[in-house]
Design brief:
This protein has two helices and three strands; from the N terminus they run βαββα. By secondary structure, it is of the alpha/beta class. The chain is elongated, with a radius of gyration of 14 Å.
Length: about 80
């Protein structure tokens, strides 16, 4: 399994995910949000080779930025 979280960091149990990634019970994780933010370079997730970490930047595509601008203007 591969876990991808682009929702809220608190939805994932960090300790359980770290154990699962270290033991390879989960193949990989892609995390755009974290339970503690900002995620420091001392985070144990940073030492893993099977975790991709993007601090709220996974949306950053031309389409994503355009949608963000439109939603901001409407609000």
């Amino acid at each position: 399994a591969i876990l991808i979280n682009v929702s809220r960091g608190g939805l994932v149990d960090d300790d359980a995910l770290l154990a699962a990634l270290r033991e390879r019970r989960i193949l990989a994780a892609g995390l755009d949000t974290h339970s503690r933010e900002p995620l420091g370079s001392d985070s144990p997730f940073c030492a893993l080779d099977n975790a991709v970490l993007t601090d709220h930047t996974a949306y950053y595509t031309r389409e994503g930025v355009e949608e963000l601008k439109i939603k901001s203007a409407k609000n």
